[in-house]
Design goal:
- The protein is an all-alpha fold and 234 residues long.
- 88% of the residues lie in helices and 0% in strands.
- It is built from seven helices and no strands.
- It has helices spanning 5-11, 14-60, 64-73, 78-90, 100-122, 126-158, 162-233.
- Helix 3 (64-73) runs antiparallel to helix 4 (78-90).
């Protein structure tokens, strides 16, 4: 006995058809989220690779306007977004020796605040992947249960032959398979993007620490220069 997909679909009940369609939509949605995330992360990595050395060079030369311009030039870079906003916030305080300590503290808080905002932005969509990965097998199991019920109903109406239960069993197995097809990639993708986020925020924490260290070193050099000037003046 042979069944085509068309014949199985025609024998599938209305509720199980809705379940299969729902599972297909869940699978398509998870893939769409994954593609969008992957493209964004790739763009972020490329922009950061170009931004980081130029920004570091601008800071070393104490060219604050150039550093801010670079942050605006690479809006797709997560590092540029956080460091640019933090530097823009404290830039008016950098040339005032009396505000040096406040500038460093303000920069640390600004980096932390921008990281939180960026985390909320980058994590959007991951909850959907986690939900699909967790619920798709159970949705498929519901379709499996309904398929088995249909198989037993066919057995009761037509007797105990294989023909009476084959369509219901096929319906059940298809629902199970589609549920797993939707769930397994969603779980893999969720774990992959979670690991990518951890890497991105490690890079971001390192870059933020470097900028704060630059500010502290810059102020220490100014304090030493000021102390030496006072010594020679005395």
């Amino acid at each position: 006995m042979q069944f085509s997909i068309k014949e199985i679909w025609e024998d599938t009940g209305t509720i199980n058809r809705a379940i299969v369609i729902l599972l297909i939509l869940m699978s398509v949605l998870s893939l769409a989220v994954a593609v969008a995330k992957w493209l964004r992360f790739r763009a972020m990595a490329r922009a950061t690779k170009q931004f980081a050395p130029a920004f570091s060079s601008a800071l070393e030369s104490e060219n604050i306007p150039e550093a801010l311009a670079l942050a605006d030039q690479y809006p797709k870079s997560h590092v540029a977004r956080v460091l640019g906003e933090s530097l823009r916030e404290v830039a008016p305080l950098l040339n005032d020796p009396r505000a040096a300590g406040a500038a460093i503290v303000s920069c640390e808080r600004s980096v932390e605040r921008e990281q939180i905002l960026l985390a909320n932005d980058l994590k959007s969509g991951l909850g959907l992947l986690a939900t699909i990965g967790a619920t798709a097998p159970f949705v498929g199991l519901l379709g499996t249960t309904l398929g088995i019920v249909n198989a037993f109903m066919g057995m009761a109406q037509q007797g105990g032959g294989l023909e009476a239960v084959s369509s219901g069993i096929a319906e059940a197995l298809i629902a199970t398979a589609i549920g797993l097809i939707a769930a397994i990639p969603a779980v893999w993708l969720y774990n992959y993007f979670t690991a990518r986020l951890d890497t991105l925020f490690s890079e971001l924490a390192y870059a933020g620490r470097e900028m704060i260290d630059w500010m502290m070193t810059r102020q220490a050099k100014r304090d030493l220069a000021g102390g030496a000037a006072h010594t020679y003046g005395d």
